[in-house]
């Protein structure tokens, strides 16, 4: 489980160290930095697929994403990292040296480290990358791998030696299992509203297109009782049915008083979205981290309490991070569990801060020096 998330110099996140629990809710007013925190976490996930440089380029390059407030001491760069009981990881992106390359706006990876345990300290380092040079812990000594990496490649994605660097592979696969849901489509043309070719689907797709197959998979190999309970609490007396005709799966929901079940095309946006959250949170193949961005969107207020119950159930299977505008959802979660970690973001002179958290209240965190 991730216990600490750290970001430095990313948009309004000048210096942020956040403590996370099994279930964490990040909230705050519009413009307080919730989206920046979410995007920073996605950038961390992109490192495991070597997509962080491209993601930064889509945001206008490193210079466009850096903290725009008063200058800070030390080298200019964007730093991202996390720590947990087993492993910690940090990466430092910096500006490239002047050159004649057409890719002069691509950031370079100046430092990248993996350590064991919750705190970065020299004795805990397992893999240490400085510019293109990589060194790996080999018992009580270090083994150097000079020139192993390009300045734009993360060691998580590009160094794959299971014999000498098993920790890199373990951490990479763990990060690659993280799931982010923020573009679940419920519009009239949403794929989830149409019959789709279906196979066993233990993981709901990022846009929810395979919803019917994902729900059928939960009914067959997952927690069918939890799914039925989630639907019954949200829509009393209703029952889920998945039509499978010639390999094409279609969602149907029977409701009291109706002579036939409603197809996915007939469901309201809120009903369809709630069923998507059920499929994501009750996945038979839980990720190491599940991140939900504004799950309350399009939902009727009466669905927030059942949604809170679903989220709490999901948090018994995996670590869950929720980013939400909704005080009602936060209150419902508070009423459903005593294990909730609350993080409220505020703006102070353009800088995102955590309400009530001073420097001495932060989780311990140290960045690797360049």
Description:
This protein has ten helices and 18 strands. It is an alpha+beta fold and 370 residues long. The chain has two domains: 2-178 and 345-361; 187-286, no CATH class. The strands form three sheets. Strands 2-1-4-5-6-7-8-9 form an eight-stranded antiparallel beta sheet, covered by helices on one side. A hairpin with an 8-residue loop joins strand 6 and strand 7 (125-130). The longest helix has 14 residues, at 34-47. The model has no long low-confidence stretch (mean pLDDT 92). This is AAA family ATPase. Residues 23-67, 171-330 form the ATPase AAA-type core domain. InterPro entries: ATPase_AAA_core, P-loop_NTPase, RecF-like. Pfam families: AAA_21 (PF13304).
Lay out the secondary structure.
Blueprint: E1 2-10, E2 13-19, E3 23-28, H1 34-47, H2 52-58, H3 62-65, E4 77-84, E5 87-94, E6 108-116, E7 125-130, E8 133-138, E9 141-145, H4 155-158, H5 166-176, E10 179-181, E11 196-197, H6 211-221, H7 224-234, E12 239-245, E13 248-254, E14 262-263, H8 269-281, E15 289-293, H9 304-315, E16 319-323, H10 327-336, E17 340-348, E18 351-354
Parallel strand pairs: 3-16, 3-17, 10-15, 15-16
Antiparallel strand pairs: 1-2, 1-4, 4-5, 5-6, 6-7, 7-8, 8-9, 11-13, 12-13, 13-14, 17-18
């Amino acid at each position: 489980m991730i216990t600490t998330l750290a970001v430095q110099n990313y948009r309004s996140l000048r210096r942020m160290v956040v403590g996370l629990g099994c279930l964490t809710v990040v909230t705050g007013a519009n413009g307080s930095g919730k989206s920046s925190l979410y995007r920073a976490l996605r950038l961390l996930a992109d490192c495991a697929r070597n997509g962080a440089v491209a993601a930064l380029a889509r945001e206008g390059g490193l210079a466009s994403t850096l903290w725009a407030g008063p200058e800070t001491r030390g080298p200019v760069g964007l730093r991202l990292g996390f720590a947990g009981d087993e492993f910690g990881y940090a990466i430092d992106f910096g500006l490239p040296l002047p050159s004649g390359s057409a890719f002069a706006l691509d950031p370079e990876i100046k430092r990248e480290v993996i350590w064991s345990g919750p705190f970065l300290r020299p004795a805990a380092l397992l893999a240490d990358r400085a510019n293109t040079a990589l060194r790996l812990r080999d018992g009580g000594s270090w083994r150097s791998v000079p020139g192993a990496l390009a300045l734009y490649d993360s060691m998580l994605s590009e160094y794959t030696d299971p014999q000498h660097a098993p920790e890199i592979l373990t951490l990479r696969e763990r990060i690659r299992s993280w799931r982010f849901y923020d573009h679940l489509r419920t519009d009239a043309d949403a794929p989830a509203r149409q019959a789709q070719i279906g196979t066993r689907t233990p993981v709901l797709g990022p846009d929810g297109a395979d919803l019917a197959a994902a729900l059928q998979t939960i009914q067959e190999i997952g927690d069918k009782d939890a799914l039925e309970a989630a639907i019954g609490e949200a829509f009393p007396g209703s029952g889920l049915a998945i039509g499978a005709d010639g390999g094409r799966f279609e969602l149907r929901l029977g409701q009291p008083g109706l002579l036939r079940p409603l197809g996915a095309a007939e469901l309201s946006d809120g009903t369809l979205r709630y069923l998507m959250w059920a499929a994501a949170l009750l996945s038979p193949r839980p990720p190491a981290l599940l991140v939900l961005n504004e799950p309350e969107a399009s939902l009727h207020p009466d669905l927030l309490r059942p949604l809170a119950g679903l989220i709490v159930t999901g948090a018994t299977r995996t670590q869950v991070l929720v980013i939400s505008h909704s005080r009602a959802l936060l209150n419902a979660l508070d009423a459903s569990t005593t294990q909730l970690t609350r993080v409220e973001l505020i703006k102070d002179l353009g800088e995102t801060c955590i309400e009530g958290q001073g420097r001495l209240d932060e989780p311990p965190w140290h960045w690797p020096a360049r």
